[in-house]
Amino acid sequence: MKTKFLTLVIFAGAVTLMTSSCSFFEGKGSITTDNNSICSNYKNSEKSELEVGLVHEMTELYQNQSRLNNDSIMAIRFDLIALKKFIYHIENEAKKQNVSSQDLGVRIYYARYPKKVTWSPGASYANDLSGFLGNSITEQYEMEHTLVMIPTRKIGSTQYDYNPFDTTTYNLGLTTSYNQLSDGHNPRKILALMPSSESRNLRKNHGEMYPPYSIGGMKFSH
Questions:
Q1: Is 159 part of any domain?
Q2: Nearest Cα residue to 195 out of 135, 129, 151
Q3: pLDDT in tens, 147-195
Q4: Apex CA 200: angle with CA 194 and CA 201, to 5°?
Q5: Based on the domain organization, do 187 and 85 belong to the same domain?
Q6: Cα–Cα distance between 120 and 132 in angstroms, integer?
Q7: Candidate ranges 14-28, 66-80, 100-114, 185-199; pick with highest mean pLDDT
Q8: How much is the pTM?
Q9: Is residue 64 part of a domain?
Q10: In terms of domains, do 85 and 129 share one?
């Protein structure tokens, strides 16, 4: 009797592992398990690598031909966890709408921070940028170039910008209606990722720009 019970326990444990453990799905990418979690395991996938010499030449070409000086932004760093959270929300919300991960992506827009006057409490972008104020480093972001990451979904043969948290964007992407910046009461929000302050009062802590953060640890800088 004890043997049968032990066998049953072992079998149940094995089934649980097979249906919920990411380790079981080695090399199969992102998979939705029976408990609705997303398993990402790319152990057997090809690594993305570049020759060091190529990276040196590409960064030098940009820095030299763009006439960057010691105060110009040369790099942006994101915490790995921030990137994983961003990707998770894209994939998890798409999964709820039965959208395959194969049709998802991220588009990176080159951008520039607005004037500091728009960051202040009560101003246009206080909700997202007020945490930059009072920080001698992040206040230097004013009018500097940066980047903004936006989720994309493949519809037909076109990759459309879309908002995973707004099902109206799943078929047509961010249509012209998104040019309306507010619904009349609150600013319109979309899932996006950009560098931001380390302020504890800011809801985001997504990354830093170099400079004004110290470039001491950067290998590919002039």
A1: yes
A2: 129
A3: 899 999 999 999 999 999 999 899 989 876 676 666 555 777 889 998 7
A4: 85
A5: yes
A6: 9
A7: 100-114
A8: 0.73
A9: no
A10: yes
3-class DSSP string for the chain: CHHHHHHHHHHHHHHHHHHHCHHHHCCCEEEECCCCCEEEECCCCCCCCCCHHHHHHHHHHHHHHCCCCCCCCCEEEECHHHHHHHHHHHHHHHHHCCCCHHHEEEEEEEEECCCHHHCCCCCCCHHHHHHHCCCCCHHHHCCCEEEEEEEEEEECCEEEECCCCCHHHCCCCCCHHHHCCECCCCECCCCCECCCCCCCCCCCCCEEEECCCCCCCCCCCC
Residue 110: which residues within 8 A CB-CB, separation 6 or more? 145, 146, 147
Please indicate, yes or no, whether residues 5 and 95 belong to a single structural domain of this protein: no
**80 token code pair:** 């790995």
The token pair at 78 is 């994101």
Where in the sequence is the domain holding 185, given as residue range(s)? 75-210
Query: Domain check: are 161 and 101 in the same one?
Result: yes
